[in-house]
Write a structure and sequence with these properties.
The chain has 172 residues and is mostly beta strands. The protein has 2 domains: 69 residues, no CATH class; 94 residues, no CATH class. The strands form 4 sheets. Strands 1-2 form a two-stranded antiparallel ribbon. The protein is rod-shaped. Keywords: Glycoprotein, Integrin, Membrane. It is a single-pass type I membrane protein. It comes from Thinocorus orbignyianus.
């Protein structure tokens, strides 16, 4: 009828973690109780989409075969909010009307004004993430003409990057 906080202890038993909660005494024969438990489990990144707990209710007064355990499977769902930020250096640029690209040149200035695009992908949590794939579509042609001449693609940290086809075709 009333609500009470349980006293629980965490212990290791045969390489597994056991949480032991004492419900208290005395309890009358045939009494029914409901127990709500909230468990905080870490390190679930590689556990798949569910975790299974073994639950067992035991009485110290009358041990019996009725003290069988049950398996409870709980779905695991990682949640992480990703934030993509980007900017261009310089923020804007204008080519002179008389400027024309020099075909076959290996000088950077003959292919246009250098513009660096920087993207940052941030994990705002609450979970950690791994195996994230970011696809950036960069328009390098417009109407069959070169819009952006892509020189290089790079990353910082423990990320890897696949260079798109056609990057720096004239080896500038």
């Amino acid at each position: 009828q009333g609500q009470e906080k349980l006293s629980c202890k965490l212990k290791k038993e045969n390489g597994t973690h056991v949480v032991l909660c004492e419900l208290g005494n005395p309890m009358k024969a045939g009494a029914q109780i409901t127990v709500d438990m909230e468990l905080s489990v870490s390190g679930l990144e590689d556990m798949g989409d569910a975790i299974t707990f073994q639950l067992q209710l035991q009485s110290k007064n009358s041990p019996s075969s009725a003290n069988a355990s049950v398996m409870v499977t709980v779905p695991v769902e990682a949640q992480a909010e990703m934030d993509l930020r980007g900017n261009s250096l310089p923020a804007s640029t204008v080519l002179p009307v008389s400027w024309h690209r020099v075909e076959g040149s290996r000088r950077q200035e003959d292919h246009g004004i250098k513009v660096e695009h920087v993207y940052q992908l941030h994990n705002k949590g609450p979970s950690t993430v791994s195996g994230v794939t970011l696809h950036l579509a960069i328009p390098n042609q417009l109407g069959g003409r070169v819009l952006l001449y892509l020189l290089e693609l790079g990353t910082e940290g423990s990320m890897s990057c696949d260079n798109p086809p056609g990057i720096n075709p004239e080896q500038v």
